[in-house]
Amino acid sequence: MDTIRVKNLKIPARHGVYDFEKDKDGLFELDIELKLELKKPGHSDRLEDTINYNDLVNNVTEIFTEKDYNLVEAVCEEVCKSLLNTFPLDQVIVRIRKPHAPIMASLDTVEIEMVRKREEV
Predict the structure, then answer these.
(1) Bridge-partner residues for 28, per DSSP?
(2) What's the average model confidence in pLDDT over 108-119?
(3) Domain containing 50: what range?
(4) 18-22, 26-30, 117-121, range with the lowest pLDDT
(5) Regarding beta strands 2-13 and 91-97, do their DSSP bridges make them parallel or antiparallel, or are they unpaired?
(6) CA of residue 28 relative to chain centroid, distance
(7) pLDDT in tens, 74-97
(8) Which residue, among 30, 6, 2, has the nearest Cα to 89 in the 3D structure?
(9) Residues 58-68: pLDDT tens digits?
């Protein structure tokens, strides 16, 4: 299985359980991995035979910002579902980092990862 990756896509949004998290945008970081067969576009060299990266980023950004979620897990599930329903892929892996998570600890970031397959949506 082949992979298309978008790494460290930065999207401002207001996801969080606390009121102050919904008052202004926080910058979230996303990694998207699409598992699919890339043999055809590898031979044809035609954009129509693969996933347009711009369409991919626009889809993720739209889903990620259309609603303010309490949990990053909930918005991640919606992103996975949208990607599997929009593009011809077998599996998606989405990682979302929240470096501004309101945790009283010395850490770089908090990250969740979801792996979803086509048959699971």
Answers:
(1) 11
(2) 94
(3) 2-120
(4) 117-121
(5) unpaired
(6) 10
(7) 999 999 999 999 999 999 999 999
(8) 2
(9) 999 999 999 99
- Count of domains for the chain: 1
Quote the CA–CA distance of 24 and 7 in Å, as a whole number.
Answer: 24
Map tokens 């892929």 to a residue: 89
H/E segment holding residue 87: none
Q: Cα–Cα distance between 31 and 5 in angstroms, integer?
A: 7
Whole-number Å distance between alpha carbons of 39 and 49:
9
Give 83: exposed, middle or buried? Use CB within 10 Å, 0-12, 13-18, 19+: buried
In the chain, which residue ranges form alpha helices assigned H by DSSP? 19-23, 39-44, 53-65, 72-86
For position 76, which CATH number holds?
3.30.1130.10
Q: Residues with catalytic annotation?
A: 98
What whole-number distance in Å separates Cα of residue 59 and Cα of residue 2? 21
